[in-house]
Write the structure tokens for this entry.
Amino acid sequence: MPDQPGAGQLRQLSPHQPLWFLVLYALAWAGGSIAYVPFLTILLPVRVAALVPGEQAIVWLSAIAFCGAISASAGHILFGWLSDVTGVRRPWVALGLVLSCVLLLFVPAAHTLQGIIEIVVLWQLGLNMMLAPLAAWGADCVPDGQKGLLGGLLAFGPGLGALSGALVTIPGLASADGRLVLVAAIVAAAVLPVLLLWSRADAGIALPPSTAAPARQRSRRGAALRMWAARLLVQVAEAALFSFLYLWLRSIDPSVEDHLTARVFSMVLVLSAPAALLAGRWADRRQHPFRPLVICTLIAPFGLVGMALAHSVTAGIASYAVFGFSTSIFLALHSAQTLRTLPDSNRRGRDLGLFNLTNTMPSLVMPWFTIALVPWFGFSGLFLLFAALALVAAALLAGLRTDPDSIN
């Protein structure tokens, strides 16, 4: 089946995509979460802990995470750009799916730090070979009037990733190596439907090249920079809370157990997904694509300030729920609405690779914020800084205006 047009071509999109296509696309995107959430948060740490003792395992995991983040950042830009240059997305998605799934099966063969790093770096390249063209594919195929709905559907991805982690770790279901096979099988089952059922009729009609006015290109570039900066600011806070929520709760009450943190994360993901779907649908109908993003970045600081002032676990969890709920909705809708701000229709894959840096950079810079602030001001100082960053993100987004003539 034919793929989308190559560089130098724009699309005249149909008024809307069928719901089944949006659902299958969102399911394929969730395949990324299903791939890395169980592997990076459960299966890999368990395997490392079995190879090396205590504090050495922490060193190993830190080194693996750092190298993996670098590989993911470079891979997303590289393969997004290659899908632009070659003018096709689907073959890259399919090849990335095969490579990432196969590389998971080689993990049991690695028994040294160097060996595991090599496998994870290659796996991240394969995974982003799949995800980068897939993200650009959404920009090619989904018209602006449905990007809110798409963002709402994408919000279910993290929850499916967490659910897959719980599924593959059911006691007695599979061995340690068998769990990796299960993850690969679930990822394939999530991504293959959209690869097999997509057709040109569902993705729009190729048109000859068209050059946008320089003023409009500058406007789009400015909007894209605002979206990039706003997401980075929110992601720094989100990454820190993902890493340190348990330690912060323990600083309030040393008796807090790890399963409480897991339940809080799960609750936030489950509740935010349908809320994001409703917010995205509202944004499409009212033609206010950026307003839900602004509202979310205005709500998040209330949760962060509440966390800074919390003196009980109950108050802390309630405040985190406000923050986590609003940022989960923000991140899902932002991923879809970013597609309308891309300045160059011939380099969507490359530009989305640059946007992906907002997902990987926080993991590299966030520890420095923590080291610099927590010893002096405690977690409260860290949370207040993040609240200020969220307000800056709101100010950046508040200046965006809908471009009614956009072709995306």
Summary: The chain is about 80% helix and 0% strand. The two ends are 22 Å apart (CA to CA). Confidence is low (pLDDT under 50) at residues 1-13, 200-211, 404-408.
